[in-house]
Amino acid sequence: MKKIMLLKTVVFILSFFILFPIQSQWFGMEPMPDARAQSTSCTLDGLIYIIGGIDHPASEASTEINVYDPATNIWLENLPDLPVTLCGAASFGYEGKIYVFGGHSYYDPFV
After folding, report:
1. Which of 18, 20, 64, 110 has the fewest CB within 10 Å, making it most exposed?
2. Which residues of the chain fall short of a pLDDT of 70?
3. Which residues of 61-75 are buried (b: 16+ CB within 10 A; e: fewer)?
4. Closest CA to 87 of 43, 47, 38
């Protein structure tokens, strides 16, 4: 019987880029305040929300929410944390609210 081993690499992202499709060019924006992997993101009212995730391997998931304003190229501060730790979730913005669902509260390299 053959054994199969799965290896998963987690990349923690600080970089933030924006694509201008008409010019076919990518531009670097203000880096994220904290590097995270397995976060979810969505837009609402012209802002980009980065929700949850993990900040290093084998860590508990994060409660952090970061919000980026593309009009000013600034990350907004002093936002309330999630009520629970969360990574690997999905989210969307709709009618003034952000809906976050799924995910898990801990990092599992095999999920």
Report:
1. 110
2. 1-14, 57-58, 107-111
3. bbbbbbebeeeeeeb
4. 38
Which regions of the chain does DSSP assign to beta strands (E)? 17-20, 25-28, 40-44, 47-51, 65-69, 74-76, 90-94, 97-101
CA distance 20 to 63: 31
The position carrying tokens 């900040």 is 55
Phi, psi of 103 (to 5 degrees): 85, -170
Q: Two tokens at 72?
A: 């000013």
- In order of 23, 43, 67, the CA distances from 94 in angstroms are 29, 9, 16
User: pTM of the entire structure?
Assistant: 0.80
